[in-house]
Amino acid sequence: MSDDLFAAIDALLERPRPVDDLPVPTERERLRKLAGLKQDDLARALSTRRETIVRWEAGATEPRPPKREAYIRFLATLALRHGTVEPSAWLRRAQAAGLVPTTAQVPGEPGPAPAEAPAPAAATPAAPGRRHAVKGAQGPGEDGSQS
Predict the structure, then answer these.
(1) The predicted structure's pLDDT at residue 113
(2) What phi and psi, each to the nearest 5 degrees, are found at residue 117?
(3) pTM to 2 decimals?
(4) Would you state the pLDDT for residue 74?
């Protein structure tokens, strides 16, 4: 009996610690407000109640999957747009997990400008009285023969 209990405790202690994949609660609120969004807006988008968002932003509770991933995507996208005021290890983890694009691909933001086509080379003006020959097309007398 005690061997089973000890094995269960050992397994519990060896479990990986939860990854800190969210910013601190005050940063969550700051990012949402920078985007000009209300807690009701976010709650509606995540199909949850405003009170849930209040608790997440207060740090009283943490979101659980699948809403956790969606919430991380929301926060990480805002952090890429507006910057973050805390260490951004959580943001790098979100990007590595594919929850949010890299900075060059932020949804709703214009992407990098497409490369402009090179300007056409300026034509060299012909000397007065000279014609430009078109390669492969020869007029009378241009091949050196007398017609």
Answers:
(1) 37
(2) -70, 140
(3) 0.58
(4) 95
**Phi then psi dihedrals of residue 133, to 5 deg:** -85, 140
Distance, CA of 79 to CA of 28 (rounded, Å): 9
Please give the torsion angle defined by the CA atoms of residues 18, 59, 32 and 52, in that order, rounded to the nearest 10 degrees.
Answer: 100
- Which residue matches tokens 């209990």? 5
pLDDT averaged per 10 residues, the chain (length 147): 84 68 93 97 98 97 92 93 83 85 52 39 46 43 47
Q: Please confirm whether the linkage preceding 110 is cis (ω < 30° from 0).
A: no
Q: What is the pLDDT of residue 18?
A: 55
Q: CA-based angle 120:122:125, to the nearest 5? A: 150
Position of tokens 């995540």?
A: 46
User: What DSSP designation does 100 have?
Assistant: S
Task: Give start and end residues of each alpha helix (H) in 1-147.
Answer: 2-14, 25-34, 39-45, 50-58, 67-82, 89-96
The answer to whether residues 71 and 22 touch, using CB atoms and an 8 Å cutoff, is: yes
Distance CA 59, CA 39 (A): 15
pLDDT of residue 41: 97
Amino acid letter, 35 = A
User: Which amino acid is located at 78 in the chain?
Assistant: L
